[in-house]
Structures are given as C-alpha cells and as structure tokens.
Amino acid sequence: MRIDVLSIFPSYFDGLTLSLLGRARDSGILDLSVHDLRDWTHDRHRTVDDTPYGGGAGMVMKPEPWGLALDDLAPASPGGARPTIVFPSPAGEVFRQSTARDLATREHLVFGCGRYEGIDERVFEEASTRGEVRLISLGDYVLNGGEVAVMAMVEAIGRLIPGVVGNPESLVEESHEDGLLEYPSYTKPAVWRGREVPPILLSGNHGAIAAWRREQQLERTRRRRPDLLPDDED
Ligand code: JA5
Predict the structure, then answer these.
(1) Ramachandran region of residue 8, left (φ > 0), alpha (ψ -120 to 50) or beta?
(2) Which of 8, 49, 59, 89 to mutate to test the pocket of ligand 1 (most atoms within 8 A of CB)?
C-alpha cells in the first residue's frame, strides 16, 4: 500500500515511522511519504492561507498549493488508478474499525491535513476528479488541524495491512473487531497486592474460559458502551 500525507506540519508524523509502522515501511509492505504542502507554493513566504470571502474569523487554506500537490500525488489519469483521498473533518463520517478495514484494502491513500478554519471548498471538488474523496471525523470534538486525526487513522489502517502486525490472531481478539469491547487480561503473579486473578483463568478449562471471557465482553459493553449493542435505544 502507498500512503501520501499532505501537511504544513510534516514533522508531526515522525512518530509514525517508529516501531510497528516503521517495520512495515522497512519491509516494503507500506510506502509512506509525508509531504510539506508549502513545497507546492511559489511565493517568498510560502503562503498557504488567506482571508475568507464573505468575512468571518480566521484564515482559509488557499486552493492553489493543494491543486499542485494533487497534480503530483493524485494526477488525473484517464482509465488509470484512482487513489482514495481522505480529508479529516469534524463534519465528516465517523471513523470506525469498519472504516479502517475498508481503507486498508485500498492500493493508494492520500491524506490532506487542513489547518486554520479549513480548506477552500473547491479543493474537495477538484480532488473528486482524481479519486474517491472521503471526509472523515475521529469523533465529535474539535482539533486545531487534521494531523492528529490522520496519525490515528494511519495507525489504525496500517496495522491491518497483512504482515504489519506479526501475529494475525492478535488482530481478531480485540475491542471492536467483533462489535464488543475486549475481555480483561491478566498475567503473573497470580496474586498481586492481595488481588487475585479470576480463578477460572487458572483452571485449564478452555471452554469455560472462552464462555467467561464472552460474558465479560457483553457485561463491559452493556455498562460502558450500550450504543454498540443491537437493541440499544440511545
Ligand atoms: C479539525 C482545520 O476528528 C475530529 C477532527 C477535528 C478536526 C479534524 S478531524 N480536522 C480538522 C481540521 O481543522 O482540519
């Protein structure tokens, strides 16, 4: 998979090249490039923002640097490959594990990180001529820009690419993969500061352990995230 990230703060993404995704990159499974949007400006001040038409607070990202960056990273290619172009936005669809699974199947993802009050709307129209555009929100809160949201999305997507997570079984027994929260985990010692590990886990009865874990998943989900259960009324 190829991933291109466009940002005016490319060093935000240094952390992604560490550990897990760093190994995926080194092994060639993931071709991740982070680009400085200012590389597609031509003025002395490398300007990426301007005042909003119609007035209002703050600044808006100018379309021209975005257009030139898309020309390079997502060129119009009749009959050719079309990347999926993701713009993080609090006004977008909510990012879920199912979204990560969907995006992990794409050959080429381009992430565009907005700053200031956002990006000139015509950039989304132009991007739609180059590939499928997805506006995606991490949740109902406001960030100062798309960078932190894109880091979360790239980590969630990248770990689903076959070969990125060493043991594929560790991908399935996880919160959200089966629509329920995870069961609690314990390791040695069997008693710690007077607190015992649930005895069933020491029983060696694998059927009983699986049933207990499923019960724990259901109970936690009912208490903490009833919205995930089928007949939730909230
Ligand atoms: C702010 C210019 O997922 C929550 C999000 C907040 C936020 C996102 S995604 N993008 C931006 C942004 O601000 O581009």
Answers:
(1) alpha
(2) 89
